[in-house]
Amino acid sequence: PEQLVEIVMKTEMKAGANSPVDLLAAKIIERSNIETIVLNGEIPRNILEAVNGKHEGTVIKK
User: Fold this and answer.
1) Which of 1, 27, 33, 48 matches a 20 to 30 Å C-alpha distance to 62?
2) What's residue 48's pLDDT?
3) Predicted model pTM
4) How far apart are alpha carbons 28 and 3 in whole angstroms?
């Protein structure tokens, strides 16, 4: 989670930057130790796989 905050902070400083989470969300993830999955929500299969514990993408955890 600490790396996520650093990445988001650097990204938000650039003009036209785009990040999967904003700085507030990154800080909440860091502070709360919430395991977080980053996935493409436009593909319904990805959501179903994540719910079933079969996600193979990015996982943010301590």
Assistant:
1) 48
2) 92
3) 0.62
4) 13
